[in-house]
Hints:
Layout: E1 5-9, E2 15-22, H1 26-34, H2 36-42, E3 49-55, E4 62-73, E5 79-94, E6 98-105, E7 116-125, E8 128-136, H3 141-166
Antiparallel strand pairs: 1-2, 2-8, 3-4, 4-5, 5-6, 6-7, 7-8
Helix pairs in contact: 1-2
Amino acid sequence: MSTATVSPTVRTRQELEITRVFDAPRELVWKAWTNPDEMRQWFGPRDFVARNLTAVARPGGRWRNCLHSDGFDTGDGEKRRLDLWQGGEYLEVVEPVRLVFTFQWDEGSGLPEHETVITITFEENKGKTTMNFHQTFFVTEEDRDGHMKGWNSSFEKLDDLLREVRDGR
Length: 169
């Protein structure tokens, strides 16, 4: 059972905000966002795994990932194999309080290919970490809502990972 609380907020058509409290110290949450070995364990919605994830978390560093699913539900009863490449550049890295990076789907993914900017802040209080996630801008509400669904599913996986690390499993 998850120990995290969730407060997704859609501010405008062009912005997405999600606030989540993880029952883990800030250093663990920061490491999960910046260490490629840990990112591979949670980055991507539940139906996907992170493949070929690379990340150099420093200003000007780049990240890249392939979200892979062997049985993505297309909504019409069909399940198919899917690879979606994504990536971006780190703009700000202020350990362990603030992370800013760009996000873009690769050309040919079939998804909107414009660049968005993600800003995440981490605050610790009594061993718990509040993560404030902000992504902007989206061209359509459908694109924003798709990201909200995907990120929330990813954050559930992040919560699972943090619990395992915290409990020493």
